[in-house]
Amino acid sequence: MACENNTRVAYFILEGLSKNVDAQAELLLIFSFIYGATLLGNSILILLTRTDQELSTPMYYFLCNLSLLDISFSSVTVPNMLFNIYTTNMSISYVGCFTQLYFFHFLGSSECFLLAIMSVDRYVAICQPLRYSNIMNSRVCLKMALSCWISGVLFSCSHTFLTLSLSFCSSNIINHYFCDIPPLLEVSSTDTHKNILEIFIFGGFVAGGCFLLTLISYIFIISSILRISTTKGKSKAFSTCTSHLMVVCIFFGTILFMYLRPTSAYSLDNDKMFCVFYNIFTPMLNPIIYSFRNKEVKMAVKRLVKKIKGLF
Fold first, then answer.
1. What band does 169 get if pLDDT is binned at 50, 70 and 90?
2. Contact at 8 Å (CB) between 290 and 45?
3. Considering the entire predicted model, what is its pTM?
4. What are phi and psi of 13, to 5 degrees?
5. Which has the closest alpha carbon to 247: 77, 59, 102?
6. What are the beta bridge partners of residue 14?
7. Which of 73, 162, 258, 285 pairs as cysteine with 107 (C-beta 3.0–4.6 A)?
8. ∠ CA(130), CA(133), CA(138), 5° rounding?
């Protein structure tokens, strides 16, 4: 249904994470700390992977891209949310809302593609070790990374343009802390069946397809590891992909649950909590996982600290 007399909303009101006024100060403090930790942790990983010669491998090249995506992905929503809590001004312009939606899905889908590409890198490293340097050369890595970013752009355009076709006449109150598709569908005055179908088709293609590629890669990886004769060899091979496997399980598990459920199972209040997990907590956890589970990163951190100390 089109809006009569150009009554389309000029802005939206975000309800945020909690309507409890007394909880706002605590939320501001908690998420400011998490966002600061996200920026610091991922910035350190980017610095290490770009400056330490021991980390100049395809795996760490992709990890650098992942850290850049995590910073950007979190920055799409968190600063605006913190500003809204601090100023108690929960409004966002129509253009600002759809800009936020576009970049959220652009960066989120790019991360899906990147995690799948990283699983392919681990497959080649473990299953084709003698050909690894030839297959995963710098040109191939650059093309693979660029394909992730470009695919994210194309995927997000389809989501954004279809959501832009909706009309918002009666209500502009969004039950969320940022502009996402499900809460916008909830307040739209247009029939949304087409949009819901699009979420399942495109969401299934991206999240489901990337997860399937990752799953197939790890089936071959685990099969190859099991054929290694020594326990030490198995442990060493598996240790090179445990960090990535943990990140994949956290990210894809939440994404698939969020967007590929039947509509009868949707609850916007619960969905906000899942969004907080993969949009705010996961970008903070990724550098921690890669640091604590990876000896090479630990050694690179020690070398960086030693260099810093040498400057004073």
1. confident
2. yes
3. 0.89
4. -110, 120
5. 59
6. 174
7. 73
8. 165
Cβ-Cβ contacts under 8 Å for 179 (sequence gap 6 or more): 12, 14, 92, 96, 97, 98, 100, 101, 104
Mean per-residue pLDDT for 134-162? 92
Where residue 240 falls among pLDDT bands split at 50, 70, 90? confident
- φ, ψ dihedrals at 205, nearest 5°: -65, -45
Candidates 2.60.40.380, 1.20.1070.10, 2.102.10.10, 3.20.20.70; correct CATH number of 10-310?
Answer: 1.20.1070.10
Residue 5's pLDDT band (cuts 50, 70, 90): very low
Share of the chain above pLDDT 90, in %: 33
181-190 contacts: CB < 8 A, separation 24 or more?
Answer: 181/101, 181/105, 182/266, 182/268, 182/271, 183/268, 184/97, 184/101, 186/268, 189/1, 189/3, 190/1, 190/165, 190/166
Contact 26, 87 (CB under 8 A): no
Alpha carbon of 19 to those of 27, 81, 118, 270: distances in Å? 11, 14, 40, 14
Give pLDDT, residue 146: 95
Question: What residues does 12 pair with on adjacent strands?
Answer: 92
In the DSSP assignment, the letter for residue 93 is E
**What are residue 309's phi and psi, to 5 degrees?**
-60, -35
pLDDT, position 265 = 56
